[in-house]
């Protein structure tokens, strides 16, 4: 499988925060969901891949070539939506399209106008008068209108209503039907990741905790409900999180199949990606209901 993005020992320091020693490979033809708490380093990582910031250590590779060695033309294949970054706000969507036509060789006015219509974006209205959600939709329309092969999306569905979010996720799924196309998308909306992502990459405090296929995560982890006295009899190696109520406990366990063999009297239910992320943040700390 060909690699679209590779990070080798990438480190970027800002005062008391560091994106630290990130090693990550993103295959072509897939969607990777980048998750983590606010301040975990998701935006920093995306900006490093785009070349907007320069790591103090390590190397970013695009299509197996060091980012610093690429010609500027590589950005023709890059579509990006960054949280909180909007295009010139005193212009209109039509004016923006005219500007993009001069920037991108592969700019497609027909596709752009189709997205403006699909997203109900008024082409003659000042962008400064758009709602936050409408500005996000405009950024997405631009990202999809120059036939990019790599999409870097930082919270692309933030502030959007469920119907538009659903449409955008469908667009992303259609996009990766071409095996040359790749998406790296950060989001706090874990349900979006559960629907679309082939892989989940989890950042915490600037460190990559894991990158696994969604299917493997769901195979490995499960939720178990048991009595408090049963909890004390279970090996700690299986337990990745505990939530206690007045009467029982809910556990996130890793190594689901082996756990079932060792403790057949306990029922192991499916865990969602959101469960895995929440328990990974909380660890084995008890959480009272």
Brief description of this entry?
With 289 residues, the chain is α/β, with parallel strands linked by helices. Helices cover 31% and strands 30% of the residues.
List keywords for this structure.
289 residues, alpha/beta, 6-stranded mixed β-sheet, 5-stranded mixed β-sheet, 10 helices, 15 strands
Structure characterization notes:
- The protein has 289 residues and is of the alpha/beta class.
- 31% of the residues lie in helices and 30% in strands.
- The chain contains ten helices and 15 strands.
- Strands 6-7-8-3-9-10 form a six-stranded mixed β-sheet, sandwiched between helices. A five-stranded mixed β-sheet has the order 14-11-13-12-15, sandwiched between helices. A four-stranded antiparallel β-sheet has the order 2-1-4-5, with helices on one face.
- Helix 3 runs antiparallel to helix 4 (132-143).
- The longest helix has 14 residues, at 162-175.
- The protein is globular and about 70 Å long.
- The model has no long low-confidence stretch (mean pLDDT 89).
């Amino acid at each position: 499988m060909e690699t679209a993005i590779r990070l080798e020992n990438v480190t970027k320091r800002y005062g008391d925060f560091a994106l630290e020693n990130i090693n990550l490979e993103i295959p072509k033809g897939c969607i990777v969901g980048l998750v983590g708490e606010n301040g975990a380093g998701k935006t920093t990582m995306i900006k490093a891949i785009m070349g907007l910031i320069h790591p103090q250590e390590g190397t970013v590779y695009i299509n197996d070539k060091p980012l610093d060695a690429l010609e500027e033309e590589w950005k023709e294949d890059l579509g990006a939506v960054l949280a909180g970054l909007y295009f010139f706000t005193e212009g209109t969507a039509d004016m923006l399209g005219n500007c993009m036509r001069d920037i991108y060789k592969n700019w497609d006015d027909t596709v752009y106008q189709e997205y403006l219509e699909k997203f109900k974006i008024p082409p003659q209205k000042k962008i400064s008068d758009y709602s936050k959600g409408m500005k996000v939709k405009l950024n997405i329309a631009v990202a999809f209108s120059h036939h990019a092969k790599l999409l870097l999306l930082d919270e692309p569905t933030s502030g959007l209503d469920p119907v538009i979010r659903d449409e955008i996720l469908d667009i992303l799924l259609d996009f990766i039907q071409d095996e040359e196309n790749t998406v790296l998308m950060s989001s706090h909306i874990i349900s979006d990741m559960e629907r679309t992502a082939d892989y989940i990459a989890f950042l915490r405090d600037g460190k990559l905790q894991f990158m696994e296929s969604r299917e493997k995560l769901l195979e490995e982890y499960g939720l178990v409900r048991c009595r408090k006295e049963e909890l004390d009899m279970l090996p700690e190696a299986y337990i990745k999180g505990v939530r206690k109520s007045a009467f029982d406990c809910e556990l996130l366990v890793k190594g689901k199949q082996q756990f079932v063999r060792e403790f057949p009297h306990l029922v192991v239910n499916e865990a969602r990606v959101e469960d895995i992320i929440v328990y990974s943040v909380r660890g084995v700390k008890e959480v009272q209901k």
